[in-house]
Amino acid sequence: MGLLSDPNRRRALISLLTRLNTPICIVCYMAGVAWFMGLAFEPFTLRTYMSENAMGSTMVEERFPAGERALATGREFSAHKKRTGGMPVEWLMKTMQAKGLEVFTQRFSRTLPFPDENKERYMVRGTNVYGILRAPRAPRTEALVLSAPCSPGDNNNQAVGLLLGLAEYFRNQIYWAKDIIFLVNEHDLIGMQAWLEGYHHTNTTGTFCHSRGGSIQAALSLELSSDIITSLDLVLEGLNGQLPNLDLANLFYAFCQKIGVLCTIQGKLQRNDWDSVSGYSHAVQTMMLMVMKQASGRPWGDHGLFLRYHIEAATIKGVNSFRQYKTDATTIGRLLEGMYRKLNNLLERLHQSYFFYLMPSLSHFVSIGYYMPAFGLLAVILLLRALDLWVQLSTPPQRTEDGVTDIEPVRGVLSLLTPLVISHLTGVALYMLPIRFQEMAVEHFPVSETEAVVLTAIAVYTAGLALPHNTHRLLSGEGTEQGWRVLKLVAVLYLAVLLGCTALINFSLGFILALTLVPVAAFVTPHVPKVLSAFILVILSPACTLLFSVFFFQELQEMPISFQDGWLLFLSVISQGILDHSLYGSLVYPLITLLVYPCWLLFWNILFWN
């Protein structure tokens, strides 16, 4: 406190920070990247542990015996699905009723804002079928959900068969203290969204669930597409980067260890040679896959939509990777039985463990207290740059021979407000025009609706580069030194607040944006070489960051693609992002278009200030 209260010491500190501003910023950036990369090193991580006392022990005896019968039921389900050309609603209802469940259906319909060419659908109509096993030992105020999507073709038939087998087995047990809902949803996420909205009476389509269980405490979504399973993969990433309580992942890992099931996360097996280069590289790959998936903001399984209702949920995927290790359906059924018996013991919602974390493996995690300093080291660069600009602006402006400053107040305000307003209007156009102009584009150009939406977005994005950087000259003439410094100070503080808020909601997205936007904010001035700097700004723009992320994600999955395939995937990611926002409420698309892109345009405007 004495350092800041003493004017001489305060001036000396500010002078030191401004004189060494650039070296400190470079060191902070390198330290932030190094800190983040070090998070995957096992000695720097925490070992997973169960925080919830009610689930602290896996000492329950799993007795599910009917794995082969469940697979036979799955084959019967597949035959009826082929016969009806979709969800065999009548057969599912009769089968669930025969197993002693209260069975209900929910019809839903949804019109997409433009056709989804990945799944070839526009007008979506379907039916969800769910059966409720009422709790015999409780007042039926709480519930658990086990779901399996009805996927096209031969996908996920085994999961539906196992779900029905577990329903029959659970019906004969008397220890359930919570309702258990067995849900088969059609049209994957769209059907799950309709069911959740109907169950919680929050939907806008007018379709409601005819009967409800208790308040849902936890949910698991099951995906099995083969009779032979070599490992089970746990999927955690949900809508807008939400994650379930870490105890749910710990519960899955604990029962996999107990029963002897091979388990993975991000499709990666756990390795014990953490002290070797290959072991560390494997952990980095696993963690980076989680970061990329979380940053996308899209739900990576049906479980992802439960999280917005504060329901802890995850997806368990059966993987057949032709390893020698095999797991039968009976073992998977026993694993699910054990997990549900533990969840049945909960006295309150899962809340004692972490909600913000990264996982380089299923046995280790990185908590928010460990990974946030990496982001903080990048964010402090913006504050240092803002301090440097504030000091420069605090010096008295030069005066002319007549004793008048070279900046008039009105011109200064116009030079600041004009790029701010036009940059954000460009962002609004990027957000609204692609869907609104799709019909016009289809009429005048030989493109489909989806191509029209994506190409319109790219056109508006590109046009934004030409609009803002000359706007201040129209009203105030030639740009001034004081003017661009004021604009950059506003832009730097704006970016700092924007990235900070984003990182609190979705750390992965905030960190990736900070990696690319912080260098832009730090070095751009009107006096740097224009051509080279413009090229660097474009490379570090949000669109190019997304393009590079597509290729990087494929490399992490060990499925490299050509530039042409990567470009097509990039266009598909754009259309999927717009659909995710329209259908499920993903915030990534409006965040990029309405806030991040306009903020980047401000720095583009500063580069071409003079």
Keywords, separated by commas or semicolons:
single chain, 610 residues, alpha/beta, Aminopeptidase, nine-stranded mixed β-sheet, three-stranded antiparallel β-sheet, 12 strands
Topology readout:
Layout: H1 2-5, H2 7-19, H3 21-38, E1 46-47, H4 67-84, H5 89-98, E2 102-116, E3 121-133, E4 142-150, H6 157-171, E5 179-186, H7 188-199, E6 215-223, E7 231-235, H8 246-259, E8 263-265, E9 268-269, H9 277-296, E10 312-319, H10 329-344, E11 357-361, E12 364-367, H11 368-394, H12 409-436, H13 438-444, H14 449-466, H15 471-476, H16 481-505, H17 507-523, H18 530-539, H19 542-556, H20 563-584, H21 588-607
Transmembrane segments: 20-41, 368-393, 413-433, 491-524, 531-553, 587-609
Protein name: GPI-anchor transamidase component GPAA1
Main location: endoplasmic reticulum
* Most strands sheet: 9 strands, mixed
Strand content: 5-15%
Q: Taking all residues together, what is the mean pLDDT?
A: 86
Tally of structural domains: 2
Helix content: 40-55%
Pathway: Glycolipid biosynthesis; glycosylphosphatidylinositol-anchor biosynthesis
Pfam family, one: Gaa1
Keywords: Disulfide bond, Endoplasmic reticulum, Glycoprotein, GPI-anchor biosynthesis, Membrane, Transmembrane, Transmembrane helix
Membrane topology: Multi-pass membrane protein
Describe this structure in words.
- The protein is built from 21 helices and 12 strands.
- Helix 8 (246-259) links the parallel strand 7 (231-235) and strand 8.
- The protein has 2 domains: 53-362, Zn peptidases (Aminopeptidase); 415-608, no CATH class.
- 45% of the residues are buried.
- With 610 residues, it is of the alpha/beta class.
- The protein has helices at residues 2-5, 7-19, 21-38, 67-84, 89-98, 157-171, 188-199, 246-259, 277-296, 329-344, 368-394, 409-436, 438-444, 449-466, 471-476, 481-505, 507-523, 530-539, 542-556, 563-584, 588-607, and strands at 46-47, 102-116, 121-133, 142-150, 179-186, 215-223, 231-235, 263-265, 268-269, 312-319, 357-361, 364-367.
- The longest helix has 28 residues, at 409-436.
- The strands form 2 sheets. A 9-stranded mixed sheet has the order 2-3-5-4-6-10-7-8-9, with helices on both faces. A 3-stranded antiparallel sheet has the order 1-12-11.
